[in-house]
Design goal:
single chain; mainly alpha; Tetracycline Repressor, domain 2; 2 strands; 5% strand
């Protein structure tokens, strides 16, 4: 499923409607989409403050007039690119959990596979991604429009995790009394919370954290 299928309606004023996996959604006009995707590429390379509108236009080969036809200003482009980048993280995490569920054959097999995911998401290689998402979440305090757009993506991820937890309950692998939505929130919170360890003076070894989470989940679930 393409990332463009997940931009919220508030950020797609010049759109067509597509039928994607999660129902009818809206995707930007091709010119608008090219500008957003180019901005995503430049943010990945230089950060959100690391390039100018002139560089965006030069990289995309789109005129300034076209940019201001589809966006209110350069900040609007950056906000919509950040929503797309957040969507990319959502899709990645959702895919990993879905694959885990599809391949698990028992409760213990499920927990062992989940252990591997815990180790992966807390790895040093994912530190930049954790910081990136935290930055985007912080941006929601300063723009209601951006907050609403990101909320759509965040809810999509939480709903996906909740559905997976319910399926695990149906299989008898998670206790029936456990609230699937709380499981979904906890799974996201522990992985994002590891950013505190990324920036501390004396970081805790990732293996210790992974074992703690693993032991905790076995008791709770």
């Amino acid at each position: 499923m393409g990332l463009s299928c997940h931009l919220s309606e508030g950020f797609t004023d010049t759109c067509v409607t597509l039928n994607c996996q999660n129902g009818k959604v809206r995707t930007p006009h091709p010119t608008k989409l090219l500008l957003i995707e180019t901005a995503v590429k430049l943010i990945d390379e230089h950060g959100p403050q690391g390039f100018t509108v002139e560089q965006l236009l030069d990289e995309s080969k789109i005129s300034k007039g076209s940019l201001y036809h589809h966006f209110t200003d350069f900040s609007d482009v950056l906000d919509q690119a950040q929503v797309m980048r957040y969507s990319r993280y959502v899709d990645s995490d959702g895919h990993a959990l879905t694959q885990l569920l599809k391949s698990a054959t028992s409760r213990e097999d499920l927990l062992q596979k989940f252990d591997a995911i815990v180790r992966g998401v807390n790895s040093p290689e994912r530190a930049q991604g954790r910081a990136d998402r935290a930055t985007m979440l912080g941006m929601t305090r300063y723009s209601q429009k951006f907050a609403e757009a990101l909320a759509v993506e965040q809810q999509r991820l939480t709903d996906s995790f909740s559905d997976i937890a319910r399926e695990m309950q149906e299989r008898g692998w998670i206790k029936k009394e456990v609230d699937p939505e709380l499981v979904a929130l906890f799974v996201q919170a522990y992985s994002m919370g590891y950013i505190l360890n990324d920036i501390t003076e004396k970081p805790i070894d990732g293996a210790r954290w992974a074992k703690f989470i693993s032991d905790l989940l076995r008791q709770l679930l």
